[in-house]
Design a protein that fits this description.
Blueprint: E1 2-3, H1 6-16, E2 21-25, H2 28-34, H3 52-62, H4 65-77, H5 94-110, E3 117-127, E4 130-140, E5 150-156, H6 174-191, E6 199-205, H7 208-211, H8 213-224, E7 229-235, E8 262-266, H9 274-290, E9 299-302, E10 311-312, H10 316-320, E11 325-330, E12 355-356, E13 366-367, H11 371-390, E14 396-401, E15 407-413, E16 419-425, E17 433-438, E18 441-444, E19 451-459, E20 472-475, E21 493-495, E22 506-513, E23 522-527, E24 533-538, E25 544-551, E26 558-566, E27 569-578
Length: 580
Amino acid sequence: MRYLFTFFLSAFLSVSLSAQTNLLFTETEAEQIIKGNYDPLLYSSSNPIEQHTDIISFIQNNVRPDSLKSYILKLSEFQNRNTASDTISSSFGIGAARRWGHGMFENFSNNAENRLITSYFQFDLDICGVNRHRNILAVLPGADTSNHEVIIIEGHIDSRCEDECGITCLAEGIEDNASGTALVLELARVMSQCTFQNTIVFMLTVGEEQGLYGADAFAEYCDLNNIPVKAVLNNDVIGGVICGQTSSSPSCPGLNDIDSTQVRIFSYGGFNSSNKQLSRFIKLQYKEELLSMVSVPMLVTIMSGEDRSGRGGDHIPFRLKGFPSCRFTSANEHGDASNVPGYTDRQHTSTDIVGLDTDLDGVIDSFFIDFNYLSRNACINGTGAAIAAIGPKKPDFSIQTIQGPGIIIHVTDQTQYGTYRVGVRSINNDWDSVYTIQGIHDTIFPPETNVYYVSIASVDEQGLESLFSREILIPNSQVSIEEQPDNSKGATIELLQNRPNPFDETTIIGVLINSPVSYKRAEIQIKDLNGKVIERLRIDLNKEINEVFYHHGFGRTGTFLYTLNIDGKDIDTKRMVFAN
């Protein structure tokens, strides 16, 4: 998991991504499947598992904690999986780890009627003095090439110790990110037994710790070749349950806190974000398809930010190319990866190991990964990816408001379905309610609130939702602001309620602009209840929705104010609650 200082992040995103060259597959068959150039009958199963209830049950019943444990123990044996480490040894370094991962994918394929097509994805880039690198892919062909959308389940296999380019130090990288690697491998093993309409790519990336390079290379390839990537599910630091002394905001309460029943989903954006919509879709599928089957319920938390403060992961390059993407991360993680003097946590150090031999009998008996927790997170991933891979096409719609809270929904695209779901939210990252409507015209009656964000999904004959559409904003009250700059007289400006509220250390503050505003400087001022300004956030005021993210940090509680200030004039003020 890459540690990105704030100043580095913007430079990294604008300069270092897309620098890879010679992007190629080592197996042409895998590439042609990803491009949709194949005969699905050649990859059909003799005993297909294709009904969604059977698939979800199969995933839940066959993802095994012991399998995940075996993968992680094997990954620890390579000692150092730095992207620039040894590629010749059969037992040490990234080369041995890559060949093992590739071999595991091939073994899974052998047990799945050879339906899983394995390949390396190669790219050239100077990373710590090494110029050629390889991701490992396993491609499960979809049954429908007329809609050859691709879903990617990924995790990075590379590791690091205190030195970003350290190639001889101990760098087992168990939480970060043998846990994500094991999850991807296990889902490939299990899901390769099932049949999906869309193609699923299981990918282990390299170069993440130096700059998300393996993911960026593949995102660049997909963009250049017009690959219709439907969704990207990135898994990074996904198996640990112990909180460290430090932790990147937003994260865990403090040293040795345990959380084995919550997983966080990070994704970019606020209003009308396809990434947040993907996160909501995954949570909805967990609640409606998987929850009734599990013995230990999980809290799936949709986070406000794209990642923890100052951090980044392999979902980001895909988002930058316009592909819906999200990141799964444990509720608790052991450290902020800063490696500053006095840093004692495990993440990004030689102590990110499997566990301890507490009774000194030569056998590890205290593990830093909770394999049951990791198994539950794998099932949440698999359920979301499975429904996305067999569900219907995403619709579009228009709306009309009526007296009171009523909203008329009119489906305008993908009108062939008889049923649709309507997601409505107000100040939360989650939907407040999901309604079911019949036909392409129907009316819903959500509770009255200041603002609605509305989106829809198609529902097929199996009762499966598509991914949800774009969001439409319905402001319930629009405030005409007086004393605006000369060129904006009569403009309508509305300072929206922050969301979520209360929130998860990060909240989104929005301003709705209905006609152009002339101004020199606009900012959101964060104030205490005495009116003292404690932070200023610059904001652009373009037409429609404008948003800023405010990070207040873990543990701060109470009521605060935020004010929209344009050219030195306070326009509107609202309250927000910090409640961690």
